[in-house]
TrEMBL record:
It holds the Pfam family Polysacc_deac_1. This is Peptidoglycan/xylan/chitin deacetylase, PgdA/CDA1 family. Residues 1-27 form the signal peptide. Keywords: Signal. GO terms for molecular function: hydrolase activity, acting on carbon-nitrogen (but not peptide) bonds. InterPro entries: Glyco_hydro/deAcase_b/a-brl (IPR011330), NODB_dom (IPR002509), Polysacc_deacetylase_ArnD (IPR050248), TAT_signal (IPR006311). PROSITE patterns: NODB, TAT. Residues 76-257 form the NodB homology domain. One of its GO terms (biological process) is carbohydrate metabolic process.
Length: 269
């Protein structure tokens, strides 16, 4: 009897373990599928993946949008850009350096930060230009069309109020794109600007000169160069190396222009 009970218990335990394992596997698969569907938000009209909104007339400004990573040109031109500000942390340092070296740049601003720190940039933009970098640096590619538009419109108005200039360029956070982002950008008549080359501060800890030398070597005519005027401490490597970067690029014959000027001169050429 005891042996039979032991055999029964063993068989029961094994069977139940197999059923449990199967259930876990099915549950994991089901969870993964659910997560995939939730995360990807299938391209239903008006969702993050769809560049259309409903079945009625698409009210999208000029009816088209241009996406730019850089330009093809024989002129030694580059556009220096800074994302995520303005904040008291480093934005004034960047503006001081650009003023000292007479370098124009394009600042892709976060609307909330522009509203809260308008005094940092008011009267200091001069030759610089501004672009929209979303309201609070959330992922626009996960938003539906209405939410993405409301986010960018709110940021647009805040940047305009803070700087006195309405942005005409958009750079979505992390460069993440979705159909809803395109739809909202078209409604606002934006040009979509990504980048050709990015600062690589993490590769040069405590070495501003080495970082500057790397960027100077990698720039090619028509480059849109991405930097940040806020962030972690390591990003100071790029900002402290800006003078060496500027001088090194000028020694190579490069001229700094805003993104809009880069696009204009490429179109003319």
């Amino acid at each position: 009897m005891a042996d039979g009970m032991r055999r029964w218990n063993r068989r029961t335990v094994l069977r139940r373990a197999a059923l449990l394992a199967g259930g876990v596997a099915l549950g994991a698969a089901g969870t993964a599928q659910t997560t995939w569907i939730t995360d990807r938000r299938l391209p239903i009209a008006g969702g993050p993946a769809s560049a259309t909104l409903g079945s009625r007339y698409q009210d999208v400004g000029a009816g088209m949008i241009e996406a730019v990573w850089g330009v093809h040109t024989t002129e030694r031109l580059l556009a220096l850009t800074f994302d995520d500000g303005p904040l008291p942390q480093w934005t004034p340092m960047v503006l001081d350096t650009l003023e000292r070296y007479d370098v124009p740049a394009t600042f892709f601003m976060v609307g909330l930060r522009a509203r809260e720190n308008a005094a940092l940039v008011r009267g200091r933009l001069g030759r610089h230009e501004v672009g929209n970098h979303s309201w609070a640096h959330h992922d626009l590619a996960r938003m539906d069309a209405h939410t993405a538009y409301d986010d960018l419109r709110r940021s647009h108005d805040a940047i305009t109020a803070a700087t006195g200039v309405a942005p005409r360029l958009l750079r979505p956070p992390w460069g993440h794109l979705g159909g809803a982002v395109l739809h909202a950008a078209a409604q606002l008549d934006y040009r979509l600007v990504l980048w050709t080359l990015q600062m690589v501060e993490g590769e040069f800890p405590r070495d501003p000169v080495g970082h500057a030398r790397r960027i100077v070597a990698d720039v090619q005519p028509g480059t849109v160069l991405l930097g940040h005027d806020v962030g972690t401490e390591q990003r100071l490597v790029a900002l402290r190396g800006l003078p060496d970067m500027i001088n090194g690029l000028r020694d190579r014959g490069y001229t700094f222009v805003t993104v809009s000027e880069l696009l204009r001169r490429a179109a003319v050429g």
